[in-house]
Structures are given as structure tokens and as C-alpha cells.
Amino acid sequence: MFEARRKAFMERMGGKGIAIFLSCPEYQRSADSLEFTYRQDSNFYYLTGLDEPDSICVLAPEQPEHKFILFVRPRDPKQESWTGKRIGTEGAIKEYGADAAYSLKELDEKLQEYLKGCQTLYYSSGSSTHFDSELTRLLTTHRHVFQPRAIYDAMFPLSEMRVNKSPAELDVIRQAASISAEAYREVLKVLKPDMYEYEVQATLEYVFRKHGSARNGYASIVGSSGNATIMHYDKNDRRMAAGDLVLIDAACEYQHYSADITRTYPVNGSFSKVQRALYEVVLHALEHAIASVKPGITLNDLHNQTLQDLVSGMVELGILKGEVAKLIEDKAYMPFYGYFTCHWLGLDVHDKGPYKSRGLWDEDILLAPGMVFTIEPGLYIPAGTEGVDPIYWNIGIRIEDNVIVTAAGCENITADAPKSIADIEASMSR
User: Which parts of the sequence belong to the Aminopeptidase P N-terminal domain (predicted)?
Assistant: First the structure.
């Protein structure tokens, strides 16, 4: 799988030049040198499968023998007794298929060799200011020996690859979605007034780990009452009360691939009349969008349709007043819904992938089978929202599903997380 990806990337390079990819650095958690749990850079993992820090991948399609080169940390038994085994140069070749592998100490010397005669360099700056500086120094110091005529951002061709998922990738994403959906079903069994938001988070994340998820896809959001109107609220420390809605946006990462689910549930097990009315507007927008997914349309088509549905619903409820088309033109919906409806999903929860055609930046990417993305309409009405009846204040509703585009439409891989009012209330009746 990783070899095929490297080959495909080198074909996109036109079989010329070299490409350099960096692993994710380790991040220090506190002053005593403890570090956050390591998570590999998604691009680096996509091409190598290697989950170690302090590693560099070089792809050199013009080299007769060494087309895939890894620079890694040397073996160090003393250090490995604290932080775990390192693959070393031997493991880089035997376990990860590198044509050649070197210690990081040899990087300067070997990189000069690979850069000789290189006309085109693919590299994405910004992930490591240290390496950016070192590469600039190398190119400047040895410009009489090698000076690429063009330097391209490696992210562009790679994002075009990552947006089209292989069958193996789709299976892993389905598993991440399945585990995450089960966690929501477990939440409905225990959710009740006087629980703290962090207790809901604990229930979710226990299920994630129980089924082999090494980490969350992102920081869990559990926001009740007015906290649900904060888009990326993550304190999760409020004690919930009867009559609250709780917005839950959480999902697991499984074998490096993430799901991304949001559900909004009544803490006491029953929607009030006002909550039900708003919820049905959002649910209709979601279900309409899912039913509309098919090859050949764009994410922007789905977004515009969702705006139509949400604004129409708000007009019917008296939250907005006026003609729907004019309200959309004037962006009157922005205080209640201020983001794009869809995003790509995969190795990153906001996965790398183009939204516009390369070279045709005014044309949206057309959906095709194998693409995976989220659909997440919502409405958010904080307390004190001007011009809105106070009965709607402190209500935030978002409902989010993940879909795979198929030849006939789409597969909703998060449908098992209850979202209809009937299913939610039935699951909470006890």
C-alpha cells in the first residue's frame, strides 16, 4: 500500500526531481521534559507507514537504485529502555522497504548527493523552521553545485491523492465510524440530569479505547445548554440539568484514520416543543443533503442547498424575517450558522484534499466514488441574541454524519449513531 502510494506520487512528479517529507516533531507537555503522546504527521505516514519522530523521507525517482530513502534516529539501547525501540537504519530497510537508510547525522552529506543535478524540488515548508533553515542554507551554500530551477509545494499533488480513498482506507474509516457510533449508543444509555459533561466524555472515550482506538480523532466536545453554542467548546465541566440539550462532537481515530460525528441529545430524554422544532430544521437539512450526494456534484452544491433549508426553517420559526433568497444573499444566517457544511475526512479529521480544481481555481472539485466527507448542518443561538425570541436562547444544535461517495449516491457510515427524535427518545426511555 505505502509502496504504491510512493510510486503514484513519483509519477505525479513526472519521474524527475526529489521530494522531501518530514515526520511530526515531538511536543513538550511540561517543563520537566515530559512530552505529549506522539502522533505522526499524516503526509509522512501516508507515504511511509513509519510512526517514529525525527525521521525524513526522500523520494528520488531519477536515482537508478535509491528512489526511497529514509533518515532515522540511530539505535540507542539506553534511550530505548525509556522510550521504546527505534527501527534504526536496518529496520528502515527491512521493515519499511527503504532502498537506502541513513542516520540523521548523515543528512547534510547525503542530501547534497541527492540534490546534485536536481532540477525540481518538492517540499512543504512551515512544519519545521529548523529544517526550513537548514535546507535554505544547503541550497545557498552549494548553489554553484546544485540549484533547483523550481521548488513546488509537495502538498498539492499529495492532497489530490489523499482525497481519493482506496478500498483498504475505506474499510478502516468504516471501522472508526462504527466504533464511534457505538459510543453514542452507550451515551444514550447513561445520559441523565445532574451528570457532568466530562462524564459523557468519559463514556465515549472508554468505548473508543475498548475497541482498539489509540486516540481520539480530535478533542471531544460535550457542550450543554449555552455551551452548545460555542463551536469548539472543550472544557466539558458543566453539570447538566433537566431541560438542557447537550451537543456532543466526538469520534475516534482507528489505525490513523478518523471519524467525525456530532449528535445533539436532550439530557432528560425528551425534547421540548421548542427544541424539537429547531432540531427538525437541522435534521431535515442533513437528511436532504445526504439524499443529494452523488458523483458529479460539488460540496458547494450541498452547502448552498443546506443554507436554503436552514434559512427556510428559521423563517418558518420566526427567527429570521424576510425572503429566503434575500436573507441568503445578505448572509443574514451568519450569526446562527457561520461555517461551510462539509469537509474531507481521512487521516486528518479535516483531511487534506483540494476543494478547487488545480489550475482552475474558480471550479469546484466534482465528487467521485471513494471520496469521504462530513455533512454537519447546525443552528446556534446564544443567550441575548438580538431580535430572537428568548425561548430559543442557549440552544445549539449540530448533527453530523460521514459519507462515502458511491456510484449510486453515498454510503452513510455513521448512520448507527441515533439521530431521529423517535430513536433518541426511545433509547433514553428507562
Answer: 1-132
Q: What contacts 140, CB < 8 A, 6 or more positions away?
A: none
User: For residues 154 and 307, what is the distance between their CA atoms, to the nearest angstrom?
Assistant: 34
Which of 127, 161, 195 terminates a domain? The answer is 161
Residues 70 and 81 in one domain: yes
User: Which CATH number fits the domain that encloses residue 71?
Assistant: 3.40.350.10
- Domain end, chosen from 131, 161, 191, is at 161
Q: What are phi and psi of 76, to 5 degrees?
A: -155, 90
Helix (H) or strand (E) holding 247: strand 245-249
Contact 76, 89 (CB under 8 A): no
Domain count for the chain, please give it.
2
Each residue's pLDDT tens digit, 131-162: 777 777 777 766 666 676 778 888 889 999 99
Alpha-carbon distance 80 to 155, whole Å?
A: 33
Rounded to two decimals, what is the model's pTM?
0.94
Cα–Cα distance, 61 to 86 (Å, whole number): 27
d(CA 343, CA 213): 22
Instruction: Quickly list DSSP for 203-231.
Output: HHHHHHHHTT--EESS--EEEEGGGGGST
142 in the same domain as 208: no
Cβ atoms of residues 54 and 22 within 8 Å? no
**C-alpha cell at position 268:** 432528560
Report pLDDT digits (tens) over 155-193: 889 999 999 999 999 999 999 999 999 999 999 999 999
* 415 dihedral zone (left: phi>0; alpha: psi -120 to 50; beta): alpha
